[in-house]
């Protein structure tokens, strides 16, 4: 199976899962925890495998494993933006980073993107937002973002390799990564501006 078909498959599965997450969120309000600690615990225990290597509590990054759970070192990647510039996650250490997985065919991604942009505009001195599109063409992405005024970086995961590395099963999914490259919170489903702020507090 070609990488292109793998990328398309990831998007289809992600969209179907996103619909289920949205319904579950509406009924139970699972994606609006009262505190950042609750958010972190919920995302870590409910959305990802819990049998990965446990952390020792040592704050030194040398003792942190690479993975997709809260407390793991975020997997590194290099992707191109729409202008052909290569962006490498590890080179952004020293700034907080939001890695948001999305696609133009995802309605809930479209709902949250204006709030992500508004939050980024007030935090851009300390924050980078990497909106990683899964498997779509340049023209499709450009047609969608035209006249939207988004100021954050939009990257192309053409083959779906980064989405696979991050275990993406539904979109939107957003990883909140601190200045040392460690994942501090994971949000599944569309976020409001207030929810983005709550998750972002986990980086402080």
Written account of the structure:
- This protein has helices spanning 3-28, 36-46, 107-123, 138-145, 161-165, 193-200; strands at 78-81, 86-88, 96-102, 127-134, 153-157, 173-177, 183-188.
- The chain is an alpha/beta fold.
- The chain has a single domain, classed as Glutaredoxin, CATH 3.40.30.10.
- It has a 7-stranded mixed beta sheet with strand order 2-1-5-4-3-6-7.
- β1 (78-81) and β2 form a beta hairpin.
- The longest helix is centred in the N-terminal third of the chain and has 26 residues, at 3-28.
- Residues 19-58 have low confidence and may be disordered.
- The chain crosses the membrane at residues 6-23.
- This is Peroxiredoxin.
- Residues 68-204 form the Thioredoxin domain.
- Residues 34-60 are annotated as: Disordered.
Helix content: 25-40%
Give, in order, the helices and strands: HHEEEHEHEHEEH
The structural class is alpha/beta
Please give the radius of gyration in angstroms: 16 Å
User: What is the global morphology?
Assistant: globular
The largest sheet, given as strand count, sense and whether it forms a barrel, is:
7 strands, mixed
Here the CATH topology equals: Glutaredoxin
- CATH superfamily assignment? Glutaredoxin
Q: Looking across the biggest beta sheet, what order are the strands in?
A: 2-1-5-4-3-6-7
CATH class descriptor: Alpha Beta
How far is the first residue's CA from the last residue's CA? 43 Å
Protein name: Peroxiredoxin
Keywords: Membrane, Transmembrane, Transmembrane helix
Biased composition (Basic and acidic residues): 43-55
Organism: Caldanaerobius fijiensis DSM 17918
């Amino acid at each position: 199976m070609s990488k292109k078909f793998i990328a398309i498959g990831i998007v289809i599965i992600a969209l179907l899962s996103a619909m289920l997450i949205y319904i579950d969120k509406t009924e139970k309000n699972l994606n609006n925890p009262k505190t950042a600690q609750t958010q972190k615990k919920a995302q870590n225990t409910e959305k990802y495998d819990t049998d990965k290597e446990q952390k020792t509590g040592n704050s030194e990054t040398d003792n942190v494993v690479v993975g997709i759970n809260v407390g793991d070192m975020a997997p590194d990647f290099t992707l191109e933006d729409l202008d052909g510039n290569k962006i490498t996650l590890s080179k952004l250490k020293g700034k907080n980073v939001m890695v948001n997985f999305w696609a133009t065919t995802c309605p809930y991604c479209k709902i949250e993107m204006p709030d992500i942009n508004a939050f980024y505009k007030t935090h851009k001195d300390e924050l980078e937002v990497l909106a990683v599109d899964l498997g779509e063409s340049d023209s499709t992405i450009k047609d969608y973002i035209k006249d939207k005024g988004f100021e954050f970086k939009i990257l192309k995961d053409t083959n779906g390799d980064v989405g696979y590395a991050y275990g993406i099963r539904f979109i939107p999914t957003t990883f909140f990564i601190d200045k040392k490259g460690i994942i501090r919170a994971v949000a599944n489903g569309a976020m409001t501006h207030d929810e983005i702020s709550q998750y972002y507090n986990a980086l402080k």
